[in-house]
Design brief:
Number of domains: 1
Bound molecules: zinc ion
Strand order of the largest sheet: 1-2-4-3
Strand content: 15-25%
Oligomer: single chain
Length: 129
């Protein structure tokens, strides 16, 4: 994982990221994670609120790079990180990288949320209170 320049991570954020990369065998050289003070975009669709995190990707020199953005506006940055990471794992498995910024799909979002909650619980059980 490469820290985006100038990014200060919140408490335990980097440790949790290490844990997730190891658990899901993520190629860290392709993953960038930023903790951003930018204004988060509003949710698309009918729901009120804003995105607490985003996942994006780009092609560079013939391979894909992934960017997870966690906004400082997120109430639970670790959970938001795990949520976006779960989307990434899912996308890598299915090979599809389009629609995350469409209107939230409730069923898919709940699955991803549950995985994020489990991952964070597992991390805390390892002695990160
Ligand atoms: Zn999501």
């Amino acid at each position: 994982m490469t820290r985006v320049k100038g990014t200060e991570y919140p408490y335990q954020f980097a440790d949790f990221l290490d844990f997730l990369c190891e658990k899901y065998h993520m190629d860290r050289s392709r993953l960038f994670v930023e903790y951003s003070s930018r204004q988060p975009p509003p949710l698309k669709g009918t729901r009120a609120g804003y995105y607490e995190g985003l996942l994006s990707y780009r092609e560079k020199n013939g391979h894909s790079e992934f960017l997870i953005t966690v906004f400082k506006a997120s109430r639970e940055p670790l959970l938001t990180l795990a949520h976006e990471f779960a989307h990434l794992v899912k996308n890598l498995k299915s090979g599809s990288f389009d629609k995350h910024l469409g209107p939230p799909d409730d069923t898919a979002e709940r699955t991803v949320d549950n995985q994020a909650i489990d991952d964070l619980a597992e991390f805390r059980e390892l002695g990160h209170p």
